[in-house]
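Figure 6 in text form: structure in, sequence out.
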C-alpha cells in the first residue's frame, strides 16, 4: 500500500474517531439535561474533557462545562446536599445499616472509643465536626480531580483574566452559628481533630495519599495552605485558571518550579501560558479571587 493511501486512511480514521467522540459526549449531556440540572460526576468529567479538547484558541468558542455547584448545609444533627433540582438530607441519627457514605465519618467517630467530648463540646458535636471535615476534604479533592488536577487547558482560551468554577459551597445552620459563634475548628478542638490535620493525615481508603496531597496545586510549594473554617461564614472550593500575566503580577517572577508547571495554549502563531490552581476560601472572597465565573 502506498504511503499516501496510508496517510489518507489514517486521517479519515482520526476524523471519524473525533466525530464519534463529539457525538457520544453530546448524547450523554443532552440525555442528562433532560433529566435534571443537578451534579453528576461522570457528566461533569466528560464535559471537562470536551471543553479541553474541543475549545477553539482562535475563535474563543467553548464547550459548555456541565459541573453545577453543589451546596452543603451542615447542622449538628444532619447535613443537606443540594445541586440543581436535587436535594437530599442525611440524618446522623438514622439507622447505620441504611446510612449513606456521606455520614460515614460521623458513625465511625461515634464508635471510636479514643475520641471523646471536650470540656465544651459533647462527643456528638465533635463527631459532627469531624464529618464536616470529611465532606469538605472529599468535595475539595473531587473539585481538583474533575478538572484534570490542573493538567489540562479549560474554559475560554482567549480570555486573559482569571476564570473560575465554584465546585462546592459549604454553610452552617443557625444552630451551629449560635453554638460556636465566631470560632474556627482550631479554637474548639485538639489539633488532631481539626480540618487542617484531617487534610494532612487522612485520605481515600486504599490509597497511600492524603487529601492535602491530592489537592496540592503548583503554588502550594511556595505558600502551603492552612485549612480551617469559621462557623460564622460560608466557604467554597474553587477551581481557578490563571494566566501567566496574573502569575507574574502575584509572584513578581516565575520560578523554575512554576515554569515547569505552566501549560501552553497556541493561538495561531502566538502562545499563551496558564496555570491552574484550587482554593478553599470564604465564599465572600470568591469575587476578589475570580475575574470571570464560568457558566456551569
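Output sequence:
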Amino acid at each position: 500500500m502506498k504511503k499516501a493511501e496510508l496517510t489518507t486512511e489514517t486521517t479519515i480514521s482520526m476524523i471519524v474517531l473525533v466525530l464519534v467522540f463529539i457525538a457520544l459526549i453530546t448524547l450523554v449531556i443532552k440525555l442528562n439535561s433532560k433529566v435534571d440540572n443537578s451534579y453528576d460526576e461522570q457528566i461533569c468529567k466528560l464535559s471537562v474533557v470536551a471543553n479541553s479538547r474541543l475549545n477553539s484558541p482562535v475563535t474563543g468558542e467553548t464547550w459548555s462545562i456541565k459541573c453545577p455547584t453543589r451546596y452543603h448545609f451542615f447542622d449538628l444533627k444532619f447535613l443537606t446536599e443540594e445541586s440543581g433540582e436535587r436535594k437530599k438530607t442525611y440524618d446522623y441519627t438514622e439507622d447505620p445499616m441504611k446510612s449513606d457514605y456521606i455520614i460515614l465519618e460521623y458513625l465511625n467517630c461515634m464508635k471510636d472509643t479514643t475520641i471523646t467530648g471536650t470540656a465544651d463540646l459533647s462527643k456528638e458535636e465533635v463527631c459532627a465536626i469531624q464529618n464536616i471535615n470529611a465532606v469538605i476534604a472529599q468535595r475539595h479533592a473531587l473539585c481538583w480531580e474533575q478538572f484534570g488536577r490542573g493538567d489540562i487547558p479549560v474554559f475560554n482560551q482567549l480570555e486573559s483574566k482569571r476564570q473560575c468554577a465554584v465546585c462546592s459551597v459549604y454553610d452552617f445552620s443557625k444552630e451551629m452559628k449560635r453554638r460556636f459563634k465566631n470560632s474556627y475548628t482550631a479554637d474548639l478542638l485538639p489539633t488532631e481533630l481539626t480540618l487542617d490535620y484531617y487534610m494532612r493525615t487522612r485520605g481515600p481508603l486504599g490509597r497511600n495519599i492524603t487529601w492535602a496531597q491530592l489537592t496540592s496545586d503548583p503554588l502550594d510549594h511556595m505558600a502551603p495552605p492552612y485549612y480551617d473554617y469559621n462557623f460564622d461564614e460560608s466557604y467554597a472550593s474553587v477551581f481557578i485558571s490563571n494566566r501567566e500575566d496574573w502569575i507574574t503580577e502575584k509572584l513578581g517572577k516565575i520560578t523554575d518550579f512554576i515554569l515547569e508547571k505552566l501549560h501552553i495554549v497556541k493561538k495561531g502563531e502566538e502562545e499563551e501560558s496558564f496555570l491552574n490552581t484550587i482554593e478553599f476560601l470564604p465564599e465572600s472572597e470568591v469575587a476578589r479571587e475570580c475575574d470571570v465565573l464560568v457558566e456551569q
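Caption detail: The CA atoms of residues 76 and 129 lie 8 Å apart.
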